[in-house]
Amino acid sequence: MSSTTTSSFPERIELSGEGLVLRDWTEADLAAMPELFDHPDIAYWTPIVSPFDEVAARARLDRDRQLRAEGTTILLAITVDGGAPLGEVMLRRASERTELGYAIGPAHRGQGLAARAVRVMASYAFEQLDAGQVILELEAENAASVAVATKAGFRLLDEPLITGEEKGRPYALQTWGLNRR
Known about the structure:
Layout: E1 14-17, E2 20-24, H1 33-37, H2 40-45, H3 54-70, E3 73-79, E4 87-93, E5 98-104, H4 113-128, E6 133-139, H5 143-151, E7 155-156, E8 162-166, E9 169-179
Antiparallel strand pairs: 1-2, 2-3, 3-4, 4-5, 6-9, 7-9, 8-9
């Protein structure tokens, strides 16, 4: 984004492309969220809370709505037809960067959902938010996420690792980027 002020996102967002519909999470999705997010891989590789139960689902939906109202982050359900959620794609913006992230439910992996959702969300960032570049921050050891980044057209950037600790374990994130064409 070229501006230093962040405006609110639209109250409702639905994006279509690549055989997907990315849509707002709804109250009706609360029951499906634990099946998607309560999994060892998601607990290990993402900041999503674990265990992920109905209480965590409610907190995530409430936090999603708060962050959207603040104009910093949107979380959209990944679907093929606007119906059942198969995962989530995230867009977080700051004055100088637009970051994407994703999580796919274990039963829905291996279908290219993450790469397609990331490409659709990147298009939204370029076309609607005037982002010049979108990034993914990934651990090099997360082979599945590195494959998603590559498949979605991202390139590893020559930037220092982002290090820290979360959920009691250290991490080192590489930054991958995709520039507006």
